[in-house]
Amino acid sequence: MFWNKKEAKHKLVVIGDSLSQGFNNGGIYRTDVNFPSFLHRCIEPTPDFDQPSFTAQAGIPLNLEVLVRGMSEEFGDEITWNEYLPAATHMLKTLKRIKKYWEGGLKDLAVERSSPYHNQSVWGFNISDSWVVNEQNSRHHIQTNPERFTVFDMLPEHAKFTTARLVLNPALKKDNELQTRSQFDNAKVLADDGGIENLIVCLGHNNMIAAITDLKMIWTEDDNLEVFPGKRTHTVYRPEHFEIQYRKLAEKVSKLNAKRVFVPTLPYVTIPPVCRGVNSDLSSKRLGYFDYYTRFWIWDEDFDPEKHPHLTKDQAIQLDLTMDEYNKIIREVADEYGWSVVPMAKNVAGLARRRLGGELVRDLPKGLADALLKQESTAHLVDEDGDIKLSTDFIRLDKNGQLYKGGIFSLDGLHPTTIGYGLMANVYLKTMAKAGVKFQHSIDWDEVVREDTLVSNPPKLLAELRYVLRFLAMGNQEKFLNFSKNILGQAMDLVSPRQKE
Length: 501
Known about the structure:
Layout: H1 2-5, E1 10-16, H2 18-21, E2 27-28, H3 35-40, E3 60-61, H4 64-75, H5 84-102, H6 129-132, H7 135-144, H8 159-168, H9 183-192, E4 196-202, H10 210-213, H11 239-254, E5 260-264, E6 275-278, E7 292-295, E8 311-312, H12 313-337, E9 340-342, H13 344-349, H14 366-374, E10 396-397, E11 403-405, H15 418-434, H16 445-451, H17 453-456, H18 465-472, H19 487-495
Parallel strand pairs: 1-4, 4-5, 5-9
Antiparallel strand pairs: 2-3, 6-7, 7-8, 10-11
Helix pairs in contact: 4-5, 7-8, 11-12, 14-16
């Protein structure tokens, strides 16, 4: 093992999913502000930490913040009825350009690079994808399932597989070795090239997330645990199946001989506002669980359980109990292998305002409060006692266009804002420091707040949140254009690890 003989060459390597890649607002865009990036900038001298860039076209498959901001700049703080069709046309042109770019229609997407990235994260990956998926089978899936652009499909359908190709084999070369490398294969190349000092393995979220994005509970069977992501039909791994996969992952991690390994516990999938809790009496003031969980763009009084997709309260509770079993398995395996467990589930749960009946159990860093106070646009988010007024609610703006609710999750309702990623980095930093990692700096909260434009400078159009969500969900717009599926619905389909019917 390299780290026993000399200092490891690679200080930080990540194998993970959307949360370690930095996915938010419906796409992967700024990888330089994901939580591993915040961490690596706390080390002096700053080590190499290579990762792909997805800033072209504001990200893949889309960026809801940029989309709404563009509409706000074009049409102002609200869209009137006579602007509905022009706004729809504006959005359609934008999405068509994004789709064409990420299908390679505007330029070659290949990057001349032979060595693997330090950040091997790919959004949408579950545990087994880390050794099943490679650039070759991703390319094959794309080629055998041709893309199309019509008013029925406005987003790049194979965005996940395009992303996987650009992470796993960025040169896109049909080299027998490069094209068949998985996340673990690439990590092994780094391990053999001087060793890995700190390895973060951020996987497991997508072994359940499809239950929320699809609002369906379909359990795994014994024969479909490692199905290619474009073929799988289940939405939730049974705990015994999760354990099989996690222990197989552990064996692969151990072969990398990293000096330290860090794995997170998995937050409840029922906490993010990607699904909206609704009670049968249409009240949102009940504590704990709601009677139904539906799409976040469906308002309480509009919800009809006979019409709208949903999970029931019992199903939500069952998902959380299953997640408890997942986390028990993670802690047991980590203990067996000597890994450090990052208490992410506990920290996210402490910010779940609606789940906790309005009371937050949190330990937010003072540095974040100080950074928020420095900016006029965010100073109101810190009260007179120094407490930060951020929560896991969907973002809401007041009549002045300032955020007064939410701030932890981005506009896709599932992934963190930049501040949310900063908070993740802070939890990792504490755990890693206890394990012996030497950090010369704390999280740069001024940078985190400055880079979080959704919180510090939200698009004014979001003040009319209900209208914006209804617009993106293509409600009345269907009178003008025959869209078969709304933008938000397509986004949920793309994020889901499950094959669509």
